[in-house]
Amino acid sequence: MDLLLILSQEHDKLPLAELKAVIEVEEIQTDLEVVCPGLVLLKSLDDEKFDEYYQILVKRLGYTHEVHQLLSTVKYDKLEDEIISIDWSNYIKENFAVRVKRFNSEIDTVATERRVGHLILTNTDNISVNLKEPKSFIRVVAHKDSIFICYGKHQLNKKYFEIMKPHKRPFFHPGCMSPKLARCMANLARIKEGDFVLDPFCGTGGILIEAGLIGAKVIGSDIDYRMKRGAATNLDYAGVTNYRTCVVDVREMKMFEEVDAVITDPPYGISTTTCGEGTDGIFKEFLSSIEHSMKKDALLVMASPDSLDIDSLLDEVGFVLLERYSIKMHKSLTRIISVIAKIH
Question: CB of 248 within 8 A of CB of 198?
Fold first, then answer.
């Protein structure tokens, strides 16, 4: 069985990198095919684990818009015959909607939606069309002259990343990371349910929330007591219960147990508190101290400004860079997202 994924195209590399990281950590056996930018097939998934994998991807992915079960792939001139041949009673129990999306295709989306919907309706008993709140969703994706016919059994919560924007949480402070990027960083860290995850610059708790919703046990520290208290408030608001927050200077941090991952966005902007320490100094002190809190195979996923020479710092403290992604935030800031491992 196959899944078709429609990825966000707001970044040219992060969505696919995030998907590959989740496939790796969740041990999903599949053949990944990039059909074109923004469109990916996961092929030959185990039938018995198909639904489990489907739900994992829907739960975890941040930079993916849709995940659908692929029912059939045909050329455009065979679309009507293929729609008629599918037993839609296996997928539609009450009402449905059809939506068409194009990738490098010139087909008429509205006309195709109407035609496909009509064919399904007239060839299936006891169903109706519901365009506003359908109980079953049929996605038709056109790429050049190929048509992917899909069924959306499990839906991503598209509203989540909007309602959980930093300024909409109970405690807010300028300079917060978006929940979508925080989720992506948690996935790049290859964390899984039950892992112990640390953010030593937790701020308002955005990264902790996303790691916690994946199922990790999270601990956040900050040198500012207001952040420690505010992060706890936001974690409670998000429904994350397995957490600890504390006031600690990262240079003095001594963990009682080593963590499975460190995911963090150290202070480096004018809206953040550096307590008199320059950006270079903060990162160097942080990297020098955090290694002792990490398990042997733990990953560090970290944001930094493009003005900082991370490579020279890594060489000094015994880390190795695995992956790097740059994100243009605004004219004066480009964030670098680094995936880093300890040198054993």
Answer: no
